[in-house]
């Protein structure tokens, strides 16, 4: 395997005396146009300091490479002095002042890099006793080695530091050396009320999360628990590439054979019509480019990611009308994902793990499911996109397995031809790209340390043409439990 690695040293010089420039919460962030040679920012290294510490960060390379470019921009202030809450609950006054130091990287897209970060021992935090390295993933421009571009992406969402969430995080942290991912997509709702305890709750979470957020390039998605002050606190902490144009609410990037489209549907649901239109225009334009024949030949997989979802079936709270209403609320999004042949929509928000049959415009599409073993399946999809819910990171709202009677109700739908994988274990998922037509999706139980289920997903990346649906034309989709209780496997 080609390894164009450049070892670089990030030395953090606390040159401003009488300021607390202790480096905390390092994160390697990716977002808009990651790996696109024409973009002026391909990734961001961010970390927090208590004081402004302007000019505190400099990058030094112990092996110089003129193609590796970076610039330090002014610290972004995370200033809060307000009453915050989530949905009117647990209101508290937050006085919080911190700075995010931003180093924008522009990598040469022909190469991968290894960058090492080393803290200032004087003011080092424990995490800086270790050097972190990251390697920018293999890139789509390298067409000759295309089929070797078997990149692997970690998906995780809805997690805090309650016992199960911590256990999942610890498992992932302990295995960053053996369990290599090329990038990580965080699907929103980190720390559950990050602002509580004057912001310490969120920072404690990110501190525990730091081995991951520096091991893998992190595409961070805001969830509905991050919408305080119109997402401004989240945004100043996660200043993703492309921020100036889209305020982290939507962006897209390509890694290997996958074009990721990130959309914040919670923002879509609460914002004004002109912002909705702007987001839809952006999405249409992005998907039109990504799905044109020439582009798709090189980057065949299109995966949408985000926190909230279009197809939400909540068997545990029968009257969860919010969830049931998503299909209608987000129909314009559904129409675009369907029209341009998006393969999957990977989301969280619901605190469990599900895999749904391909849908387009709220209608079930053709697919073929073959059983390989008790927990491995081959899923060949036609048109439409598969929804994968990975909201089982472990948080304060526990996963509630359905009661026996509820299970029986659902079982009566078994005759219907739809697919419904439903797991209540705490963990994460990953996608491993195999080639132009095959990916593997694995759901992993990090508490019991076992693979829950594996899907070999096959797609010819067909778009579903035809008219956009209006809600009146929608049919209700039915669900089948295929693997009801993974805990028995
Ligand atoms: C670490 O910080 C201290 C205190 O600001 C400073 O005197 C020292 O030069 C720094 N060392 C390095 C290696 O950056
Ligand atoms: C080092 O950290 C301490 C406490 O966190 C702080 O008081 C001090 O000002 C810091 N020194 C520098 C040079 O940042
Ligand atoms: C890279 O960005 C440019 C400018 O936005 C765009 O025209 C081009 O299609 C992008 N290339 C890829 C591979 O996404
Ligand atoms: C971190 O990297 C530097 C430079 O390569 C090295 O001197 C130092 O010993 C490393 N520290 C650890 C804890 O590995
Ligand atoms: C919220 O932020 C968006 C940009 O993300 C902006 O367009 C909108 O006007 C803001 N809304 C309010 C109420 O400030
Ligand atoms: C984004 O805007 C800020 C503030 O206007 C500016 O300092 C920064 O350089 C801009 N970033 C990019 C990548 O254009
Ligand atoms: C759902 O709401 C309906 C109508 O309000 C009510 O009759 C039913 O008992 C509720 N079901 C559950 C499981 O709460
Ligand atoms: C943690 O996970 C275990 C095993 O699934 C479960 O029994 C327990 O209720 C969970 N605890 C919380 C607080 O969700
Ligand atoms: C893609 O991978 C699958 C599964 O390994 C294999 O059966 C298929 O032949 C491969 N297709 C191509 C075009 O390499």
TrEMBL record:
Residues 168-352 form the Calcineurin-like phosphoesterase domain. Keywords: Glycoprotein, Signal. One of its GO terms (molecular function) is hydrolase activity. Pfam families: Metallophos. InterPro entries: Calcineurin-like_PHP (IPR004843), Metallo-depent_PP-like (IPR029052), MPP_PAP (IPR041792). Coiled coil: none annotated. The keyword Ribonucleoprotein does not apply. The keyword Transcription does not apply. Residues 1-18 form the signal peptide. This is Ser/thr phosphatase family protein.
């Amino acid at each position: 395997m080609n390894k164009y690695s450049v070892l670089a040293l990030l030395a953090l010089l606390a040159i401003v005396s009488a300021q607390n420039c202790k480096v905390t919460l390092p994160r390697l962030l990716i977002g808009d146009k990651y790996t696109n040679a024409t973009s002026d920012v391909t990734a961001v290294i961010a970390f927090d300091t208590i004081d402004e510490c302007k000019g505190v960060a400099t990058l030094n390379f112990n092996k110089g490479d003129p193609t590796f470019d970076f610039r330090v921009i002014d610290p972004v202030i995370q200033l809060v002095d307000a009453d915050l809450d989530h949905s009117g609950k647990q209101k508290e006054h937050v006085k919080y002042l911190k700075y995010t130091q931003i180093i924008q990287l522009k990598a040469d897209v022909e190469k991968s890099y290894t960058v090492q970060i080393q803290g200032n021992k004087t003011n080092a935090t424990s995490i800086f006793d270790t050097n972190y390295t990251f390697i920018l993933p293999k890139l789509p421009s390298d067409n000759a080695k295309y089929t070797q571009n078997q990149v692997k992406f970690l998906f995780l969402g809805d997690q805090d530091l309650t016992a199960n969430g911590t256990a999942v995080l610890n498992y992932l942290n302990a295995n960053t050396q053996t369990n290599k991912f090329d990038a990580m997509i965080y699907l929103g709702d980190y720390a559950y009320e990050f602002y509580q305890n004057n912001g310490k709750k969120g920072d404690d979470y990110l501190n525990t999360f730091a081995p991951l957020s520096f091991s893998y390039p992190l595409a961070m998605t805001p969830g509905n628990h991050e919408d305080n002050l119109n997402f401004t606190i989240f945004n100043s902490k996660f200043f993703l590439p492309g921020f100036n144009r889209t305020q982290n609410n939507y962006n897209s990037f390509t890694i290997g054979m996958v074009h990721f489209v990130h959309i914040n549907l919670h923002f879509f649901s609460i914002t004004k019509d002109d912002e909705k239109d702007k987001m839809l225009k952006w999405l249409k334009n992005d998907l039109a480019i990504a799905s044109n024949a020439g582009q798709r030949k090189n980057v065949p997989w299109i995966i949408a990611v985000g926190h909230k979802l279009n197809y939400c079936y909540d068997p545990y709270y029968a009257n969860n009308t919010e969830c049931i209403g998503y299909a209608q609320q987000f129909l314009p999004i559904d129409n675009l994902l369907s029209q341009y042949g998006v393969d999957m929509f990977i989301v969280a928000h619901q605190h469990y793990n599900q895999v749904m049959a391909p849908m387009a415009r709220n209608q079930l599409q053709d697919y073929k499911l073959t059983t390989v073993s008790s927990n491995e399946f081959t899923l060949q999809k036609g048109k439409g996109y598969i929804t994968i819910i990975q909201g089982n990171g472990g948080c304060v709202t526990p996963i509630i397995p359905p009661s026996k009677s509820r299970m029986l109700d659902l079982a009566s739908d078994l005759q219907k031809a739809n697919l419904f994988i439903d797991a209540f274990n705490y963990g994460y998922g990953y996608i491993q790209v195999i080639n132009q037509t095959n990916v593997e999706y694995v759901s992993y139980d990090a508490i019991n340390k076992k693979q829950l289920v594996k899907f070999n997903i096959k797609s010819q990346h067909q778009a579903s043409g035809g008219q956009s649906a209006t809600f009146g034309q929608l049919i209700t989709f039915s669900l089948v439990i295929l693997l009801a209780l993974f805990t028995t496997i």
